[in-house]
């Protein structure tokens, strides 16, 4: 009996191995690709030199692991067990909260005061924003700073217990809002608006499995943004109408846009069904007499997607040459597909781009406040207020002091930090912040 069991076990193992090999070679069963960002290892080229040096073997091993048959199903099985049994996400940067609500780790950390900026530096950023706003206003361009909501701040009750914070904990959000208001920067803070709508709106403003505002929340935000721009620019946008009740969705495979963007990289066998989410049905009329589609430039992070993914606010309400500068790096069309133009923000004429607009909207989420407005404010500030050679010398001296201080405080990691891409740009930005606060305030 024992021999029979042993032979059966070996037979099953052999059959599984054969199935894995056949699937890898011939793709007998159609498999759905794994979600999220990853790159499969390419097939290595054999050479005796690589084999003898031992570099070929690990490359081959990685290739075989990435291309084994039924790999997507096996990965999803592993991930499902970790999720269901231990509430552990097998994807970096994601937290599983109460009621299986998903959060982006960085957003939760920023809510708790992670990477807290010095108040003086935030004050310097606000001064620069005020100056840029004034410079643009002189040229007939209205500037608006939009603070998009942070899901962790919106529903902290669903955060994991370890991420709960005490009321009044300092954060970059609270410091930025205080500084922007003190410097009279045009501000649309969506955070208190979403907190108020949370108590009155019948549908979720964030989906259970998304890190951005939901389709329903995005349209409320867009409505509010248009009204604020009308006030700033003394104009009227084309009419937007509701043409029916919201479409209710209760299954994961029916979610739209980025309402499932955190669940997708988890790669589970069975997705957690969402709390019923809603999608408004809207219609946009052509401009009537007294209405206009102004040219605009939107600079910001991925919360910009919601302004075009769920309803055509940007293409219907703004001029055809309106553009999105994603993280201040790449230029996109404001359509539903978020189509890249192939241009980088450094490739275009900055002065022409900003002075040909009626509105410039800078939209940032709390966890991206450490990025100095994606460098956009700095570029515009330097355009109208270039540093003299003498000022650049002083700024370089400040930058060198910052590097020396970091090297002294963290001698083991300082050189590694300096080797990172963008480190010197970061130090330069900090040095400029200090210089402006001390000499140009």
Give a structural overview.
The protein is α/β, with parallel strands linked by helices and 441 residues long. The protein folds into 4 domains: 1-30; 34-68, no CATH class; 99-384, no CATH class; 389-439, no CATH class. Helix content is 45%, strand content 13%. The chain contains 17 helices and 11 strands. The strands form 3 sheets. The chain has a 7-stranded mixed beta sheet with strand order 4-3-11-7-8-9-10, sandwiched between helices. It has a two-stranded antiparallel sheet with strand order 1-2. The protein starts with a helix and ends with a helix. The model is unreliable at 19-26 (pLDDT under 50).
Element layout with pairings:
Layout: H1 2-26, H2 48-53, H3 56-67, H4 71-86, E1 94-96, E2 102-104, H5 105-111, H6 119-138, E3 142-148, H7 151-154, H8 172-182, E4 187-189, H9 190-200, H10 215-233, E5 240-249, E6 277-284, E7 296-300, H11 306-309, H12 313-317, E8 323-326, E9 330-332, E10 340-344, H13 350-355, E11 359-365, H14 376-384, H15 389-409, H16 414-419, H17 423-439
Parallel strand pairs: 3-4, 3-11, 7-8, 7-11
Antiparallel strand pairs: 1-2, 5-6, 8-9, 9-10
Helix pairs in contact: 6-8, 6-14, 6-17, 15-17
What is the strand tally? 11
Q: What gross morphology would you assign?
A: globular
Numbering strands along the chain, what is their spatial order in the largest sheet?
4-3-11-7-8-9-10
Query: What is the string of SSEs from the N terminus onward?
Result: HHHHEEHHEHHEHHEEEHHEEEHEHHHH
Over the alpha carbons, how many angstroms does the gyration radius reach? 26 Å
Distance between the termini: 88 Å
User: How helix-rich are the residues, as a percent range?
Assistant: 40-55%
Overall tally of domains: 4
Q: Helix tally?
A: 17
Poorly predicted regions are 19-26
* Chain-averaged pLDDT: 87
């Amino acid at each position: 009996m024992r021999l029979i069991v042993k032979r059966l076990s070996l037979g099953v193992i052999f059959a599984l191995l054969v199935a894995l090999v056949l699937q890898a070679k011939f793709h007998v069963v159609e498999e759905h690709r794994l979600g999220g960002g990853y790159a499969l290892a390419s097939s290595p080229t054999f050479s005796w030199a690589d084999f003898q040096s031992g570099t070929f073997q690990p490359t081959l091993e990685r290739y075989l692991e990435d291309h084994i048959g039924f790999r997507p199903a096996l990965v999803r099985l592993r991930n499902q067990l970790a999720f269901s049994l231990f509430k552990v996400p097998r994807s970096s940067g994601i937290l599983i909260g109460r009621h299986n609500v998903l959060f982006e780790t960085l957003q939760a950390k920023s809510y708790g005061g992670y990477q807290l900026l010095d108040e003086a530096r935030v004050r310097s950023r606000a001064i620069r924003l005020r100056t840029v706003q004034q410079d643009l206003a002189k040229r007939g361009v209205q500037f608006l700073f939009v603070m998009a909501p942070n899901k962790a701040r919106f529903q902290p009750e669903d955060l994991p217990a370890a991420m709960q914070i005490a009321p009044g904990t300092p954060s970059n959000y609270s410091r930025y809002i205080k500084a922007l208001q003190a410097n009279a920067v045009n501000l649309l803070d969506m955070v208190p608006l979403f907190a108020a709508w949370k108590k009155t709106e019948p549908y979720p403003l964030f989906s259970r499995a998304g890190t951005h505002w939901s389709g329903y929340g995005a349209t409320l935000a867009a409505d509010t943004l248009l009204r604020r721009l009308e006030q700033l620019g003394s104009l009227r946008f084309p009419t937007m109408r509701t043409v029916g009740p919201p479409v209710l969705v209760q299954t994961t495979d029916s979610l739209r846009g980025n309402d499932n963007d955190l669940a997708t990289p988890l790669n589970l066998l069975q997705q957690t069904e969402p709390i019923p989410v809603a999608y408004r049905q809207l219609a946009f009329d052509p401009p009537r007499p007294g209405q206009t589609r102004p040219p605009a430039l939107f600079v910001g992070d991925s919360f910009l997607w919601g302004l075009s993914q769920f309803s055509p606010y940007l293409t219907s309400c703004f001029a055809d040459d309106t553009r999105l500068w994603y993280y201040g790096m790449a230029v996109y069309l404001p359509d539903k597909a978020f189509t890249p133009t192939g241009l980088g923000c450094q490739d275009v004429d900055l002065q022409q781009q900003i002075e040909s607009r009626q509105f410039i909207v800078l939209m940032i989420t709390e966890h991206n406040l450490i990025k100095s407005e994606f460098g956009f404010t700095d570029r515009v500030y330097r355009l109208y207020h270039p540093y003299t050679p003498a000022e650049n010398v002083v700024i370089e001296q400040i930058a060198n002091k910052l590097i020396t201080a970091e090297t002294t405080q963290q001698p083991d990691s300082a050189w590694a930090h300096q080797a990172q891409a963008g480190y010197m740009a970061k130090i330069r930005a900090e040095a400029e912040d200090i210089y402006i606060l001390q000499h140009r305030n």
